[in-house]
Design brief:
The complex is a heterodimer of chains A (601) and B (306).
Chain A: E1 5-14, H1 18-32, E2 35-41, E3 48-58, E4 71-74, H2 77-83, E5 92-96, E6 110-114, H3 116-120, H4 127-139, H5 144-154, H6 159-179, E7 195-198, H7 199-210, E8 212-217, H8 224-237, E9 240-243, H9 247-259, E10 263-268, H10 270-285, E11 290-296, H11 313-318, E12 327-329, H12 334-351, E13 354-360, H13 361-364, E14 367-370, E15 386-387, E16 420-421, E17 431-433, H14 451-471, E18 485-490, H15 494-508, E19 512-517, E20 519-521, H16 525-532, E21 538-542, H17 548-557, E22 563-566, H18 575-586, E23 592-593
Parallel strand pairs in A: 1-4, 4-5, 5-6, 8-9, 8-10, 10-11, 11-13, 12-13, 15-16, 18-19, 18-21, 21-22, 22-23
Antiparallel strand pairs in A: 1-3, 2-3, 2-14, 7-14, 12-20
Chain B: H1 37-51, E1 58-62, E2 77-80, H2 86-96, E3 101-107, H3 108-114, H4 116-125, E4 130-135, H5 170-177, E5 181-186, H6 190-202, E6 207-212, H7 224-227, E7 231-233, H8 244-252, E8 258-265, H9 295-305
Classes of the chains: A alpha/beta (601), B alpha/beta (306).
Bound molecules: thiamine diphosphate, iron/sulfur cluster (SF4) and magnesium ion (MG).
Residues 64-67, 83, 106-110, 134, 136, 138-142, 147 of chain B line the site of thiamine diphosphate.
Chain lengths: 601, 306
């Protein structure tokens, strides 16, 4: 049961401590057992600019940043000017009396000026802490949780800093109690404490759970969080973590490690992924399993490093020259990232091919609450037909000596999968070559009479993909089958579409259902066709300009959507964007809606 | 790695004696007759044999080029990767299984042109790899274009009026780049090359052996006949390979007298693998360790999120 659903927006310059203030709030809410989603609209400069962090929390499910702000904390004038006008009746703005002048808010919006200098005794850094105290008071949350989290946050800086910040938090709290009107609700404590996780952490932890032993990267927003987590935990978990000279090196290096038998992984964004393309083809050709995560950001080229987009679909589909098997998956949210990485590793090991993950800034840098019970680290690990030298002290299939002709690394089997020995196994010597090769690894690229062998090897590799589709879950329609409209999305839009569907039903009387698609290659074309051919009106929702997935859907399932909702301004969808677009499309006004992102306009 | 000559566990099934031929692959090289790379292949096989390296514990990684076809002619594990990428792949392989002997082979274009970035960074990391470059100062496989080591003025298919660019000199570059064993060999001096390669393989850290390996088909300037009278062996000249400045001077020497031999070596620097505690937990190579996390490890990770 949902009894509260509120959002706090903190705006200001980079360097004003917005992220750490957000962290404190997120921890307080999660520890109470509230679900939450936090999204930071920021710029890639370290100081200055405009940053706006939205934290939404509820005792019901929270799948997006939502549509409204209840508490606005503008840390500078710019943030006040941009956001005050978007507040609606019932909301409030908490700000420093001396620093920020309010404009005229909408009727019913409470202005909460605080004399910060007085409360913080001139400690400029602590204004955020005072604002937090006031926020919690208005939300009906006791001050102890704040004190506990403040202690955790400032522990490293020493006792006096902790004590000072606690005093300031309490001063803000008391000031609000005496001067402002609290919300009509009190935020409940619905149960067991939850954790807080970003998508990049979830990705890294999924890798650790899968048994990744080698992680390499070149820093690139918004994927750098994975590298930072891995570097931080490398020694404790026994993972070799390398920062490499460029992304070409990254991909080649993880392939080298994977070739020896390690589970190896990397994460990057579209630009880095572009540099990896040729080597991804190598993984396909020498049949080495690796996992690479592309955390999409707004492109092309450097694009908007701190903004989200789903613009790399065709890049991923076409990465690398030639035809070769690959598995592509687009997880929906943080916990899905955690669960998908080990599953993908199992598939890649089984089918000996690269596995590519399409994440995006929205979910990878975005924060979500997480139930610790959902973070199951004892994942299933299946390595397929791998031959290691140390299983029972010898190789699984011991060969007969150095010059062993009996082992063919690329044996043409009915499944297309050939047992994979790694260097170090006695009696299985071969050369893995990116030139086309015969079953035993011998180059046939220049052979005069090779068309039949070439065909055999192309087909052998391609055949592996026939079975993969049976190992992955088909997409499921969510909501009533007889709905007026079906919203199709892929990857990270699943949550916001779900909330839009709920809003359509609750506020607009429009019955919609939803088909979220996660596995891109292989594609459950038959099942998707079956579902969508029964839909009355199909609308494709995606975060890019050209409708990349709409085109993919048409090519793979032969289905053209009736309408499209697209957004490519760098910010993610909010539920009302989709709701309004569906309304206009059902009214026959348009077949293409491009919602305007109001907040930063 | 334990050394060296005892037969592998499975050799009981076929106790063939190890000879130099043990290291020969089943495929005969398709290099042009007279190509300098034959001599390098032979020298490498001899070096592995003399050091008693086990074929299944040796991995030879190459890029793309005539010279990069070498792994296919060896009876060891091999990887024939992408143009310019052998060092990156080899670094991953070496860290994945640090008990392997990993040797990279390739051409001048492969290593100093398209692979230049990896070359620079692999040297400074001092990864325990041996890198043998068959430097023919030309792009052989693509039929004779200018390479990063083609001398200024050289007429090639891509420089019909003579190259106006200055070449890379890999020896000084490697010395200042952080390589800890820097040698040069010549295909016309195979015995000497075997010694250079053996020294490189035994060296702990990044070792470069840049080999003048004439391309008899496309490089009509730097031929055996051109090199033969010019080549001087450092070991016979009283060169001290621990003197960095002399090593650089010798490295720049070009013209009537061109030195080959060991220019530079330092043995006090730890290799990358030495410095990575993850490899020294007593659990063997990363590649063969059990996968997954223990319950305690999982719990500790979850605790960070609360
Ligand atoms: C990305 C890429 N670019 C270009 C090529 C074409 N190519 C193959 S080998 C080669 C140059 C070979 O020269 P070198 O490395 O000196 O080897 P050699 O043939 O002289 O032994 C080139 C340009 C390629 N295979 N891949
Ligand atoms: S083209 Fe040159 S480098 Fe290539 S095989 Fe022939 S001689 Fe050797
Ligand atoms: Mg060459």
């Amino acid at each position: 049961m949902r009894t509260v659903d509120f959002a706090i927006g903190i705006g200001g310059e980079n360097g004003q401590g917005i992220a750490s203030t957000g962290d404190i709030l997120a921890r307080i809410f999660a520890r109470r057992g509230l679900n939450l989603n936090a999204y930071n609209a920021y710029q890639s400069i370290i100081r200055g600019g405009h940053t706006f962090l939205t934290i939404r929390a509820s005792d019901g499910p929270v799948r997006s940043m939502g549509d409204k702000i209840d508490v606005l904390i503008p840390l500078n004038q710019d943030a006040m000017d941009r956001h005050l006008k978007l507040l609606t009746a019932g909301a409030c703005a908490i700000y420093d009396t001396e620093k920020v002048k309010p404009g005229t808010p909408a009727a019913g919006v409470q202005l909460c000026p605080i004399p910060m200098k007085e409360l913080t005794k001139g400690n400029k850094l602590a204004a955020n802490t005072a604002a937090l105290g006031a926020t919690l008071q208005l939300l009906g949350i006791e001050s102890e949780p704040l004190e506990a989290v403040v202690t955790r946050q400032f522990k490293k800086k020493g006792e006096s800093v902790v004590a000072e910040n606690i005093a300031i938090a309490r001063a803000g709290y008391d000031y609000a109690a005496n001067n402002f009107k609290a919300f009509p609700f009190k935020v409940p404590k619905p149960g067991k404490g939850l954790g807080v996780i970003t998508g990049n952490q979830a990705t890294a932890m999924g890798g650790a759970a899968a048994g990744v032993k080698f992680y390499a990267a070149y820093p690139m927003s918004p994927a750098t969080g994975v590298l930072m987590w891995m570097a931080q935990h490398a020694r404790q978990l026994g993972i070799m973590v390398r920062q490499v000279e460029d992304e070409i090196g990254v991909m080649n290096m993880i392939i080298g490690a994977a070739h020896t038998g390690c589970r190896a992984m990397c994460a990057t964004s579209g630009g880095g992924f572009a540099l990896m393309s040729e080597a991804i083809g190598m993984a396909g050709m020498i049949e080495t399993p690796i996992v690479c995560v592309d955390v999409q950001r707004a492109g092309p080229a450097t694009g908007v490093p701190t903004k989200t987009e789903q613009g790399d679909l065709w890049q991923i589909l076409g990465a690398g020259q030639g035809d070769f098997p690959r598995i592509i998956v687009a997880p929906a949210c943080q916990i899905d990232l955690f669960k998908t990485i080990p599953e993908l590793f199992n598939l890649c090991d089984k089918y000996q091919c690269p596995g590519l993950v399409l994440a995006d800034l929205l979910i990878s840098e975005g924060t979500s609450s997480i139930n610790p019970d959902d973070l199951a680290f004892n994942v299933k690990i299946e390595r397929g037909e791998l031959i290691l030298p140390n299983s029972n002290g010898a190789s699984v299939k011991p060969g007969s000596g150095y010059n062993d002709n009996a082992y063919w690394r690329y044996k043409n089997t009915t499944s297309g999968i050939s047992p994979r020995a790694v260097p170090g196994v006695p009696g299985h010597i071969y050369t893995a070559a990116t030139d086309e090769h015969d079953e035993d690894g011998t180059l046939i690229s220049d052979e005069f009479t090779n068309p039949h062998k070439r065909r055999m090897m192309v087909e052998k590799r391609a055949r592996k993909m026939e079975a993969v589709v049976h190992d992955i879950a088909p997409p499921k329609l969510i909501g009533p089958e007889s709905a007026q409209v079906t919203l199709v999305g892929w990857g990270s839009t699943e949550g916001v579409i779900r909330e839009a569907v709920e809003k359509l039903a609750g506020e607009e009387g429009i019955v919609a259902n939803q088909l979220p698609i996660k596995w891109i290659v292989p594609f459950h074309a038959a099942e998707i066709t079956r579902i969508l051919s029964r839909s009355k009106h199909v609308i494709m929702v995606e975060n890019n300009y050209s409708g990349q997935f709409a085109r993919y859907l048409r090519s793979e399932a032969g289905i053209a959507a009736h309408g499209h909702i697209r957004k490519y301004d760098g910010e993610p969808f909010m539920p009302h964007h989709i709701v309004n677009a569906v309304k206009e499309q059902l009214a026959g006004k348009t077949q293409l809606s491009v919602p305007v992102h109001e907040v930063l306009a | 790695m334990s050394s060296l000559t005892e037969p592998p566990a499975v050799a009981a099934a076929q106790p063939a004696p190890v000879t130099k031929d043990t290291y020969k692959g089943r495929i005969h090289p398709d290099w042009c007759p007279g190509c300098g790379d034959f001599s390098v292949l032979s020298a490498l096989q001899a070096a592995l044999f003399e050091l008693g390296l086990k074929p299944h514990q040796t991995l030879i990684v190459s890029g793309i080029g005539c010279s990069s076809n070498l792994p296919g002619y060896m009876n060891t594990y091999g990887m024939h990767t992408l143009h310019g990428r052998s060092l990156a792949v080899a670094t991953g392989a070496k860290l994945g299984n640090h008990e392997l002997k990993v040797i990279c082979t390739g051409g001048d274009g492969d290593g100093f042109g398209i692979g230049g970035n990896h070359f620079v960074h692999t040297m400074r990391r001092n990864v325990d790899l041996t890198y043998i470059v068959m430097d023919n100062q030309i792009y052989g496989l693509t039929t004779g274009q200018c390479s990063p080591t083609s001398i200024k003025g050289m007429i090639t298919k891509s420089t019909p009026h003579g190259s106006v660019e200055n070449p890379i000199n890999p020896i000084p570059m490697a010395i200042v780049g952080g390589a800890t064993y820097v040698a040069r060999a010549f295909s016309g001096k195979q015995k000497h090359m075997v010694e250079m390669i053996k020294g490189a393989i035994l060296h702990k850290g990044f070792s470069l052996v840049d080999v003048f390996s004439p391309c008899v088909t496309y490089n009509k300037d730097n031929t055996y006949q051109w090199f033969n009278p010019r080549i001087k062996i450092l070991e016979e000249m009283g060169h001290d390979p621990t003197d960095m400045h002399k090593a650089i001077d010798r490295g720049y020497q070009w013209g009537e007298e061109i030195p080959i031999g060991l220019f530079w070596r330092r043995s006090e620097l730890p290799s990358l693998e030495d410095q990575e505690p993850v490899l020294h937990t007593g659990e063997g190579p990363l590649a063969f360790r059990p996968l997954g996390l223990s319950q305690e490890q999982g719990k500790a990770l979850i605790k960070e999120l609360l």
